[in-house]
Amino acid sequence: MNAPATGAAVAIQEYRNFIDGRWQAASDGRTVDVLSPSDGKVFARIARGTAADIDAAVAAARRAFENGPWPKMAAVDRGRLMIKLGLKIAEHAEELAQLEAADTGKPMKQARADMVAAARYFEFYGSAADKVHGEVIPFLEGYMVTVVRDPKGVTGHIIPWNYPAQMFGRTLAPAIAMGNCAVLKPAEEACLTPIRLTQLAEEAGFPPGVINLVCGVGEEAGAALSAHAGIDFLSFTGSPEVGTLVQIAAAKNHIGCTLELGGKSPQIIFDDADFEAVIPVVVNAIVQNGGQTCSAGSRVLVQRSIYDSLMARVAERFATLRVGSATMDLDCGPLISAQQKRRVEGFISQAKAEGVKVLAEATIAPGVPEGGFYVAPTLFGPVPRDNALACQEVFGPVLSAIPFEDEADAIRLANNTEFGLVAGVWSGNGARAMRVAKAMRCGQVFVNGYGAGGGIELPFGGVKKSGHGREKGLEALREFSQSKTIVFKHG
Ligand code: NAD
Asked: How many C-beta atoms lie closer than 10 Å to residue 355's C-beta?
């Protein structure tokens, strides 16, 4: 392992880029400070990748794709190497979880769960690599027509800071399983586990150029990657605003992209729902990862006849939540940055100023380190349907409760945002739950449960401003490949 070089003056680790199988500083030697969200202090530095670094990484991926062993390797062998990486991740899970918790501020229990998922991505797609079959099309007499799936080529991947390790697996594993060679740009706020996972891939024996990692600032390395003419396909996860820029860049190069953007996901609770099952799930779906989850259940829509009784119980539980540092390992950690804290506090103070009632506020535990980016989870309700809290993505631990009248009203309300990522439906009436699930305009619906972020096997993605394309499940293998029809005239 030769990535980290100890910083000279203080014991701050510096992490480099990984290009063509070699760890290297940014082409101009610049770095970005990495702050701990738990105390706001600098504890690491990463390379501030440049357009020249992106050029080098894309060229390395191109060489690996055109001349290297990876795309030509038997799919079963590609899969074996990926499974080996999955096992390595599982072996290093505790070390990785500590790194992730330090970098993102998330409680250790969340970081540990994330490493299980990160390992699973390589296990799942490694096992799937040799199961992508083509088709045979009956055509004219004297012909054999087959449809095979080819890799896209060189794939570019831009990921956010909220689940760096999971995102590494989610975007890279299906791409490389199909034989693509990749360049990954993680988020500048949190990218230490992607770096460590790349080291583990190197140790596992991935050929040079298959996985290239360039850290740095979005407007620099990210923009250079999305605009690069040597990229054949882009996979982006992040904000709708940057997603627009990435899609424009992709269009200019006439390539495809998947966009996984934000959400304002509803949990619809009917009067015949099982309260005991609903309450912990509804609360967890917004405090998990400090609400910084694209699929957070950030709107709870409750049938009016049970609104007061259910929300009193939800509020009771919500008020018991405690916020602390990553190592305190409480219900909720700090937010990722001072900027994110300001943004979330802005939503909370605006709603309060507008007179939206606070149903419960959680506690920031005594003894949290000074300088951390802590925000107390807050439950508002009833939130007017046109309020910012009912429509906009907060990306923090803020839950909005809104009453509805009947099934038709619930469907209208649930679908009435610019987003469409995930929905939850809670009802003891199976027929009703199925009708509502079918009416949801989004990519995933949970009935009598909610699984923000989970389920590697389950295709995931959005509609409307939540993006397009699908990740996870076998569908992701289709995104990272394209069909080729071979028409063979044998006479
Ligand atoms: P962001 O869009 O600012 O950053 C995401 C990534 O894009 C980072 O790697 C960043 O460096 C890069 N980037 C920034 N500017 C760029 C540019 N001009 N060109 C190319 N790349 C650029 O988002 P964020 O603040 O890091 O993450 C929060 C947002 O991401 C939220 O809106 C959230 O809902 C969304 N998100 C969505 C999913 C999903 O799966 N749908 C998952 C996580 C986060």
From this structure: 7
| Other residues' Cβ atoms within 10 Å of the Cβ of residue 343 | 15
Same domain for 220 and 326, yes or no, is no
User: Residues 407, 410, 414, 417: is their CA dihedral positive or negative?
Assistant: positive
Q: What is the mean pLDDT of residues 100-114?
A: 98
Residue 477 inside a domain? The answer is no
- How many domains would you assign to the chain? 2
Minimum CA distance residue for ligand 1 atom 12: 218
Q: What is the per-residue pLDDT for 22?
A: 98
pLDDT of residue 4: 42
Residues 436 and 389 placed together within one structural domain of the fold: yes
Coil, helix or strand for 461? Answer: coil
Band (451; pLDDT cuts 50, 70, 90): confident
Q: What is the pLDDT of residues 10-26, one digit of tens each?
A: 578 999 999 999 999 99
Cα(379)–Cα(141) distance, integer angstroms: 67
Q: How far apart are CA 10 and CA 341, in angstroms?
A: 28
Given the residues 188, 202, 260, 479, the one annotated as active site: 260
Give the type of residue at 173: A
The closest alpha carbon to 208, from 18, 20, 3, belongs to 20
Query: Which CATH number do you get for residue 146?
Result: 3.40.605.10
For the CA of 159, the closest atom of ligand 1 is 9
Check whether residue 331 and residue 403 sit in a common domain: yes
pTM for the structure as a whole? 0.96
Per-residue pLDDT, 453: 54
Domain that holds residue 250: 14-261
- The question of whether 241 is a catalytic residue gets the answer no
Is residue 341 included in any domain, yes or no?
yes
The residue among 311, 313, 267, 302 whose CA lies nearest residue 286 is 267
Ligand 1 centre and the CA of 293: distance in Å? 12
Residue 260 a catalytic site member: yes
- Ligand 1 centroid to Cα of residue 108, in Å, is 23
411 - beta bridge partners? none
- For the CA of 240, the closest atom of ligand 1 is 32
Q: Which of 53, 220, 226, 239 to mutate to test the pocket of ligand 1 (most atoms within 8 A of CB)?
A: 239
CATH at 276: 3.40.309.10
pLDDT at 373 exceeding the cut of 60 = yes
CA-nearest residue, atom 35 of ligand 1: 238
Catalytic position from the list 215, 294, 332, 442: 294
Q: How far apart are alpha carbons 379 and 398 in whole angstroms?
A: 6
